[in-house]
Amino acid sequence: MIDPQTVQQILDAADIVDVVSDFVSLKRRGANWIGLCPFHNDRNPSFYVSRAKGICKCFSCGEGGSAVNFIMKHEQLSYPEALRWLARKYHIDIAERELTDEERQAKSEREAMLMLNEWACQYFIKQLKDTQQGREVGLTYFNERGFNQTSLDKFRLGYSNSQFDAFYRAATLKGFNRDLLFSTGLCVDDGHGGGKDRFRGRVMFPIINLADKVIGFGGRTLSHDKQVAKYVNSPESIIYNKSNELYGLYQARRDITRQDKCFIVEGYADVISMHQAGFTNVIAASGTALTEGQIHAIRRFTNNVTEMFDGDAAGIHAALRGVDMLLTEGFNIKVLRLPPEDDPDSFARSHNATEIQQFIDENETDFIRFKANILLSDAQNDPIKRTEAITDVVKSIACIPSSILRSVYAKECSAIFGIGEDVLLREINKFVRYNRQKRQQDRDREKAAQQRAAQSQGATPSAEAGAPTAADAPTLDTTSATPASSARVEKAKSKSSDIQIQERAVIRLIIKYGYCLLPATPEHDTTTVTQHIANELELDDMSFSHPVYKQIFDLARQVLPTFEQDFQQFSAEVQTKKQQYITSQMQQDGDVNFEDMDSAALIHALERKQKAVEAQATARERKQIKEYRSNYLEKLLCSHIDDAVRNLACEMAAEPYQLSKIHTQFATIVDEIDRLPQLVDEMIYNWKNALVEELIRQVKEQIGNASSEQQIVLMQQLQEYYELRRQLATLIGDRVVTP
Ligand SMILES: [Zn+2]
């Protein structure tokens, strides 16, 4: 359990841009940051991150939330686990007690496996450093490879003792149960009720995922026995899906983003040597061709990939495999062929950083060009082989999504092959059409399967009317995409759910603008949105019927005094900064050359400048205050410990615009915050109106079944409700100015 102060400390420290950047390459766009959504196969950036609001949101698939939510979803963690993750990232200490045996067993299998792997990783490191065998065998090997201490630490390299069951005994002594040792693959059943170590006598390369968790190991033997496999890997398990992992991606991710490029090599040692040589954007894909999962992982960080491969014939042909999928996904691919006697590991060790960079600059080749040349030289003068080579290259070019790029390659390859450009282009287009048809067929099939699944489950109504669902908003421009569909949804709803819709609209205003100020009117003084709504509800003895809305509303009112205190302090700071800003601006000469002026002109110019600077400073101040007021509550709710509160707040905070009727009719939309006074009253009115409509409906229903005496009473009541409705209409007519 984590105490509330520490939770707050973690939430304060967790900067959403920083947290998301660990997994997604973000680019600045205005006040926000955007990137490719990590939750669906995103081709165009749909994932928005707002630092001011502390939330992220995908406008394509709808995933998102606060930093905690993001980590929960991305890493599949519970709320407390996500907090721990963030605490670790920001070096915030959480005192955690040792787990009891029962608790250790009760933890989910996944967690238990990760815990064991982490412990194993540390165990192997200790073996390497602190045992005689580890130093003499393991460390000697790493030293021979030239790995320095920084590399050993960075990649958490270790050693597994050659004894039959050294690890097995140590782990069981520590309380890890046998099943876990087998399910992670660290040990194998010996058939006599014990276990033997899978990795005995090997140097250990832990495989670390993007969340910095050890999900598996690769072990290299140091034995010269030909019978012994050179490399052994952890078996696939619920935590380790070999085909989705890229070795070194965790260590390389930031530099891949920074350089907007990554190098792909083949083995663990290649990655480590390259990193040690200063090339820290290098990763390895174990196995021959990249899988879809791996491509998806790379694309979060960059679109530019260079394949680095051994200069021998086997290396060359390995490099040609599996690249079409990268091309299809719109990657820019280059190849770097090393000298025939080298692999990336030996190359990195035998050259310094400058030499390596120079070699890259001189030898990096475009993939298509490389492939065309290699296949052509393989084919020599064999016409059939030549045709095959051309078709092969044409197929690759046809995978490229950009038609401009395709025609550039057609031109280039026509020169290489000595074939007419138009002939090549025709062939390319044939495959483009074929690919397109195939994709369409796949999509149709998928759609049909989904429809069948939906029909068998019965129609599922959307949880909240008016909320833009993922299906309603396939594009970023939600304002144009949602109104029509939300109108459709609203029409389909019964009257009583209309009340819920109106309640939702009001609670949304509280979440987004609860502590913003409404200017004074004849009816009330300057007040916050929250206070104003509270007053209005009290007036008609109303309250939220939805339990979560009520909880949020109560929270907003409870926290208001704390906010006022914090705001006092904040606005004092802003004032000080404003004065400092004015002073510093006045001290700078700027464009005006004061020296040449006479004293009257000088005074005049200074006065003018003062006014301009002050106006500027005031505008800045207003903006800061407005932001502080509108973000305070939203941030608080979006990281709230209660799942229902947090999820609802995040969902609403990310909705770009209120989907009211006004917006459906007019294309231009005024920033919501600028028309808050009207909006708040309009929403309250709509809610009250929905309540009155519901009362009218109920009374009408009763009249039908009532005796004639009761009918008279009910008719009177009905008249009162009609009057109420009329009054509301006048009231709102006076107050709400529709654009
Ligand atoms: Zn998405």
Characterization of the model:
With 739 residues, the protein is an alpha+beta fold. It folds into 4 domains: 4-89, Alpha-Beta Complex (DNA Primase, Chain A); 110-240, Alpha-Beta Complex (DNA primase DNAg catalytic core, N-terminal domain); 249-432, Dna Topoisomerase Vi A Subunit, Chain: A, domain 2 (3-Layer(aba) Sandwich), CATH 3.40.1360.10; 491-588 and 600-739, no CATH class. The chain is built from 30 helices and 18 strands. The strands form 5 sheets. Strands 1-2-3-4-5 form a 5-stranded antiparallel beta sheet. The two termini are 52 Å apart. Zinc ion binds next to loops.
Low confidence ranges: 458-495, 657-669
- Major beta sheet summary: 5 strands, antiparallel
Major sheet strand order: 1-2-3-4-5
Q: What structural category arises from helix and sheet content?
A: alpha+beta
Topology:
Blueprint: H1 4-13, H2 16-21, E1 27-29, E2 32-35, E3 47-50, E4 55-58, E5 64-66, H3 67-75, H4 79-89, H5 101-106, H6 109-130, H7 132-144, H8 149-154, E6 158-160, H9 166-173, H10 178-183, E7 187-189, E8 195-197, E9 202-208, E10 214-221, E11 231-233, H11 249-259, E12 262-265, H12 268-276, E13 282-284, H13 292-299, E14 304-309, H14 313-320, H15 323-328, E15 332-337, H16 344-350, H17 353-363, E16 365-366, H18 367-379, H19 383-399, H20 403-417, H21 421-457, H22 478-492, H23 495-513, E17 517-518, E18 527-528, H24 529-539, H25 547-587, H26 599-638, H27 643-654, H28 661-665, H29 676-705, H30 708-735
Parallel strand pairs: 12-13, 12-14, 14-15
Antiparallel strand pairs: 1-2, 2-3, 3-4, 4-5, 6-9, 7-8, 9-10, 10-11, 15-16, 17-18
Helix pairs in contact: 3-4, 6-7, 12-16, 18-19, 18-20, 19-20, 19-21, 20-21, 23-25, 23-26, 23-29, 24-29, 25-26, 29-30
The structure holds zinc ion (ZN).
The site of zinc ion has 9 residues, from loops.
